[in-house]
Amino acid sequence: MPRFLIALLLAWSCLAQGAEVSESSLDARVSHITEQLRCLVCQNESIAESQADLAKDLRRQVREMLTAGKSEKEVRDYMVERYGDFVLYDPPLQTSTLLLWLSPAVLAILALGVFARTLVRRRKAPAATPDAAALAKARALLADPKDEK
Amino acid sequence: MKLKALIPLIVFVALAILLGWSLRHDPRLIPSPLINKPAPEFALPVLHQPDTQMTLADMRGKVWLLNVWASWCVSCRDEHPVLLEFSKRQLIPIIGLDYKDKRDDALAWLNQFGDPYTNSIMDTAGRVGIDFGVYGVPETFLIDKQGRIRYKFTGPLNADSLEHVLLPHIKELQGA
């Protein structure tokens, strides 16, 4: 009988722990998604961070959708359907975002081009050779006064 | 060589145009992806008779406005007299969506400031608000006879924007 009780207790504790794990993994999935969604009220915060009422409602919405078995993509699509690409911190590549996506590469290429041109110019430029008068003047200045005496 | 001297000027002009455009562009205005799409279905209790429900289908065949407001919303107070005045002209039915509000507060608010709405519905949990992509109350949606959202105005309407921005859209739909 005591053995049976212990087994029962063990089984129960395992079950309890299992429930806790799935709860915390749901938390993790909710924050994983909401961290990538931009809050529409305070635009520089994610929905995960924001304390705005709307952000709280949207966190609740994400949690409910995940509990109902929806995938992360479905949740993201749901948000985009209502609020547009604006909610995504990682906007998709399309005509309206072409400039956004390409400008870093374009700027990097431009900078590299300027850098390369500067290097080539420097190499081509003749090494500076001072004229005889300047050389003599410099020698006179550098010469040890003791030697002259 | 001459062209090179112009580079700083070109860069300056480009920057000035970009910054000038950004000054005029309000980053809080987010274009709604719902424009020209069917309005989300809803079934919500009527504010004055909470036992009865109103649905999207009830408005089919009419061009109408959905005005999202709340008694806790400060800029709704600015918009309210404008809507009240507009409702007297009886150009279009205005349905008030009382967003995330308490019924008593909403009723008291309408009693105090006047009721411009043909009918008012309650979205206490804010779920229909999410479906409509509401992010800043007040918001006004213009919905056509087929139940599609045709225009959205975010923020409080004033006499000028009502007359010159919203009304032309209404007239266009009613003529069609």
How are the SSEs ordered, and which strands pair?
The complex is a heterodimer of chains A (149) and B (176).
Chain A: H1 2-34, H2 53-67, H3 72-83, H4 98-124, H5 132-142, H6 145-148
Helix pairs in contact in A: 1-2
Chain B: H1 2-24, E1 43-45, E2 53-55, E3 64-69, H2 74-88, E4 94-99, H3 103-113, E5 119-123, H4 127-131, E6 139-143, E7 149-154, H5 159-175
Parallel strand pairs in B: 3-4, 4-5
Antiparallel strand pairs in B: 1-2, 3-6, 6-7
How would you describe this structure to a colleague?
The complex is a heterodimer of chains A (149) and B (176). Chain A has six helices and no strands. Chain A has 149 residues and is mainly alpha-helical. Chain A folds into two domains: 2-90, Cytochrome C biogenesis protein (Helicase, Ruva Protein, domain 3), CATH 1.10.8.640; 93-125. Chain A is elongated. Chain A starts with a helix and ends with a helix. The mean pLDDT of chain A is 84. Helices cover 40% and strands 19% of the residues of chain B. The N and C termini of chain B lie far apart (60 Å). The model of chain B has no long low-confidence stretch (mean pLDDT 93). Chain B is an alpha/beta fold and 176 residues long. In chain B, strands 5-4-3-6-7 form a five-stranded mixed sheet. In chain B, strands 1-2 form a two-stranded antiparallel sheet.
Number of domains of chain B: 1
Question: Per the principal axes of the C-alpha atoms, what is the gross shape of chain B?
Answer: elongated
| Largest interface chains and counts | A-B, 15 and 19 residues
- Structural class by SSE content of chain B: alpha/beta
> What is the CATH first-level class name of chain B?
Alpha Beta
Class of secondary structure makeup of chain A: mainly alpha
- Major beta-sheet overview of chain B: 5 strands, mixed
Name of the CATH superfamily of chain B: Glutaredoxin
CATH third-tier fold name of chain B = Glutaredoxin
Q: Looking at CATH, which topology of the largest domain in chain A would you report?
A: Helicase, Ruva Protein, domain 3
The DSSP helix count of chain A reads: 6
Order of helices and strands of chain A: HHHHHH
Report the top-level CATH class of the largest domain in chain A. Answer: Mainly Alpha
User: Sheet bearing the most strands of chain A, described?
Assistant: none
Helix content of chain A: 55-70%
The best one-word shape of chain A is: elongated
DSSP summary, beta strand count of chain B: 7
Low-confidence stretches of chain B: none
CATH architecture of the largest domain in chain A: Orthogonal Bundle
Strand percent estimate of chain A: under 5%
